[in-house]
Design brief:
The chain is mostly helical. The protein contains 12 helices and 5 strands. The strands form 2 sheets. It has a 3-stranded mixed β-sheet with strand order 4-3-5. Helix 1 runs antiparallel to helix 2 and helix 10 packs antiparallel against helix 11.
Length: 318
């Protein structure tokens, strides 16, 4: 492969893992494995419950299933390779494989943010226009919203790994990370990466900035509408309906902001800590989302008891 007058000679990259924490890496696989299993099992259960329970075939739970599928893809794009690296001492990743992994990380991360914004819109319609809820959020409207979210993520964030893959990589091939993070890879290029850095920053601000602004505005309207409800019971019910979503939004964007700021501007933060928070950013939200929604949402708890817990009890009785 060549770019301009400089040829790319690297056919593979070497992942370091957690710089400075090499002696602890093997032990770190234990909590990461547990968290990954919880994330996969929890999100699959969530999808199955929504599919099996007719009462959950509503726009809110459709968005929740989309979030669960995104979460499964997000943690699966990084954790299995990371565990293989630590268990089998195989730290190499092919040139093509590295940028494919980078593609899925960026696209799915932006989809996570976009889906949370769509879920905020769903709560706005449900609380502020309850009588028109099914009229506004029809199956056709839902398909269009999801389609736009996917198109935005694939077009804008999909260009980040594409541009990075076009850079020339002449000799250095050691990535100071445990997966193919964009800037960690781009810094190995033997060419100026200013355009790549600015583009990734612009995309981050456009997508995350738009989503956060929309969510803040939407929940400001929701809280204003809820405060005007005459019944205390109605206000409590409305707050409970939005509570789990608000919690998910807060910890997702908190970890996102912390990871972004420390990785780009935290020069005094040890590299191993940078990498640790990057992994937790991709793993903790997928693990916690089904737990939070399962605990806070009565309908999901009832669906779990009906389709899984009671079946297990009946089998034990036999």
């Amino acid at each position: 492969m060549s770019t301009g007058n400089i040829s790319t000679v690297n056919t593979e990259f070497i992942l370091i893992g957690f710089p400075g924490l090499e002696s602890y890496q093997h032990w770190l696989t234990i909590p990461f494995s547990v968290m990954y299993i919880l994330a996969i099992v929890g999100n699959i259960l969530l999808i199955c419950i929504v599919k099996l329970e007719p009462n959950l075939h509503t726009p809110m739970y459709t968005f929740l299933c989309v979030l669960a599928m995104v979460d499964i893809g997000l943690c699966t794009s990084t954790i299995p390779k990371m565990l293989q690296m630590f268990w089998q001492k195989d730290s190499t990743i092919s040139f093509e494989g590295c940028f494919i992994q980078m593609f899925f990380i960026h696209v799915l991360s932006s989809l996570e943010s976009s889906t949370l914004a769509a879920m905020a819109y769903d709560r706005y319609v449900a609380i502020c226009n309850p009588l028109l809820y099914t009229t506004i959020l029809t199956k056709g409207k839902m398909a269009k919203i999801i389609g736009v979210l996917f198109a935005r993520s694939f077009i804008l964030t999909g260009l980040i790994p594409t541009l990075a893959s076009m850079l020339p990589y002449c000799s250095a091939n050691t990535i100071q990370h445990c997966f193919c993070e964009h800037m960690a890879v781009a810094k190995l290029a033997c060419k100026d990466i200013t355009m790549n850095s600015y583009y990734s920053l612009a995309v981050a601000f456009v997508i995350a900035g738009t989503d956060i602004t929309f969510i803040i505005f939407t929940y400001a309207v929701i809280l204003r509408a809820v405060s005007k409800l005459g019944s205390k019971a109605a206000r409590v019910k409305a707050f409970n309906t939005c509570g789990s979503h608000l919690f998910v939004i807060m910890y997702f964007y908190t970890t996102t902001l912390f990871t972004f700021v420390t990785y780009r501007f935290g020069n005094n933060v040890p590299p191993g800590i940078h990498v640790m928070f990057s992994v937790l950013y991709l793993l903790v939200p997928p693990m916690l989302n089904p737990i939070v929604y399962g605990v806070k949402t009565k309908e999901i708890r009832q669906g779990f008891q009906k389709h899984f817990l009671r079946k297990k009890i009946n089998l034990n009785d036999k």
